[in-house]
């Protein structure tokens, strides 16, 4: 049973400055739940409770979020706010978090390597990245099923428009059945011309322990950082890596301003307590903007 995961959360969040000057980008809310909680919930739903967070100096809020908060709980209890109390308690009661620090930010590959001593180098493990929320499908379950069938590493992919390939790791794949593929090559953030396909890495991985030695040997790559993608490229020389493609509509990127806003609006429109008025507001805004444009033209 693969039952441990690493979530790297040490990044600066420069795309969201100044909001992320004192607050971790992983704590940005999607309506009323921080992004990181969605990532953790996907793991918990799959029965993965042991989660190693690779954090940095400015990330204490994440530790507090997954800890008990007795004062707040008492306050909610006294105020009779049972539903909120349940919400606040649920997350900290289920997860077994381990926090370790990446002292220097040398890239995603380096962040994962930082967890090696804690996780041990004998067992397979999961890596979930904090930027992308996946809805309607549990990628952790899928990766484990594929792992149990083939005993090899697995990554999750989704199709992106060619113009967007530069934002992701991109894999060259060979189909084996329906949505399952074998990875033939992988490249970190290629230009549209260089990209071997438009199948992007969504940020969910299941690795065999062989990845450790590859990570240890990985030199700085794209952006001068030690890239996980480069270690996977090396892994491919030794072991098969499987991939599973999920529907684009299940993928919600929160890693850049525009996609973050689209995610917030999509999730808000599904919330019965606010969606009626929100839709009305959006309609009014669209009309207003159309009128402004007409005036200008
Ligand atoms: C990272 C990975 C990239 C992957 C992406 C998914 O990039 O390096 O391969 O496609 O996450 O979100 P980042 O978004 O951290 O720049």
From TrEMBL:
A GO molecular function annotation here is:
UTP:glucose-1-phosphate uridylyltransferase activity
Q: Which InterPro entries match?
A: GalU_uridylyltTrfase_bac/arc (IPR005771), NTP_transferase_dom (IPR005835), Nucleotide-diphossugar_trans (IPR029044)
Q: Which SUPFAM superfamilies match?
A: Nucleotide-diphospho-sugar transferases
Q: Which residues cross the membrane?
A: none
Q: Say which domain of life the source belongs to.
A: Bacteria
Known EC number:
2.7.7.9
Enzyme class, one word? Answer: transferase
Q: Sorted alphabetically, which keywords does the UniProt record give?
A: Nucleotidyltransferase, Transferase
Q: Where is the Nucleotidyl transferase domain?
A: 4-262
Question: Lipid metabolism as a keyword?
Answer: no
Q: Which Gene3D superfamilies match?
A: Spore Coat Polysaccharide Biosynthesis Protein SpsA, Chain A
State any GO BP term from the record.
UDP-alpha-D-glucose metabolic process
The reaction(s) this protein catalyses: alpha-D-glucose 1-phosphate + UTP + H(+) = UDP-alpha-D-glucose + diphosphate
**PANTHER family xref list:** UTP--GLUCOSE-1-PHOSPHATE URIDYLYLTRANSFERASE
Family to which this protein belongs: Belongs to the UDPGP type 2 family.
Name by which UniProt lists this protein: UTP--glucose-1-phosphate uridylyltransferase
């Amino acid at each position: 049973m693969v039952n441990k995961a690493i979530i790297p959360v040490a990044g600066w969040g420069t795309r969201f400055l100044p909001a992320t000057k004192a607050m971790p980008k992983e704590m940005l809310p999607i309506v009323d739940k921080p992004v990181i909680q969605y990532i953790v919930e996907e793991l918990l739903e799959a029965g993965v409770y042991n989660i190693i967070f690779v954090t940095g100096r400015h990330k204490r809020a994440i530790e507090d979020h997954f800890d008990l908060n007795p004062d707040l709980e008492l306050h909610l209890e006294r105020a009779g706010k049972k539903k909120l109390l349940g919400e606040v308690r649920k997350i900290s009661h289920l997860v077994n978090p381990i926090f370790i620090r990446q002292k220097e930010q040398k890239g995603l590959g380096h962040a994962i390597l930082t967890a090696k001593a804690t996780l041990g180098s004998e067992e397979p493990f999961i890596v979930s990245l904090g930027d992308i929320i996946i809805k309607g499908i549990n990628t952790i379950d899928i990766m484990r099923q594929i792992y149990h069938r083939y005993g090899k590493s697995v990554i999750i992919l989704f199709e992106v428009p060619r113009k967007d390939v530069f934002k992701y790791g991109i894999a060259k794949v060979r189909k084996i059945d329906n949505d399952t593929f074998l990875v033939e090559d992988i490249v970190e953030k290629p230009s549209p011309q260089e990209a071997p396909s438009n199948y992007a890495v969504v940020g969910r991985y299941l690795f065999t322990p062989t990845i450790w030695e590859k990570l240890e040997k990985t030199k700085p790559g794209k952006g001068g950082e030690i890239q996980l993608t480069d270690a996977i490229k090396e892994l491919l020389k030794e072991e098969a890596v499987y991939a599973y493609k999920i529907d684009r509509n299940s993928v919600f990127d929160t890693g850049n301003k525009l996609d973050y806003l689209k995610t917030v609006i999509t999730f808000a429109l599904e919330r019965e307590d606010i969606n009626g008025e929100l839709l009305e507001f959006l309609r009014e805004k669209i009309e207003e903007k159309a009128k402004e444009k007409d005036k200008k033209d």
